[in-house]
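Model it.
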Amino acid sequence: MQKVHVELLQGRPVYDSKDKLAGRIASIHATWKGENCFVEEYRLGAAAFLERLGIYAGKLVGWMGSHEPLRVPWDQLDLSDPERLRLKCTLEELRKLVR
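Modeled.
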């Protein structure tokens, strides 16, 4: 198994299985279980970036995009090539999956 340093994933673009840009990794959510840390999901896009800054309502700053970050479950992101991150599904399939 290849090791990937999560700090190197921050800000990287993620493409879906049809090579469409899904967004950039804005945050990585993980939990500790004993001595091990497990990634639960990756959050993509501008909404995730604003959420990371503590701004939850984009309307407060005049931003009219989606108010929810795109959530990618840990098992839907292919990390085999950290230079070219890919979803294991299309963007449309992901949006149906995480609703």
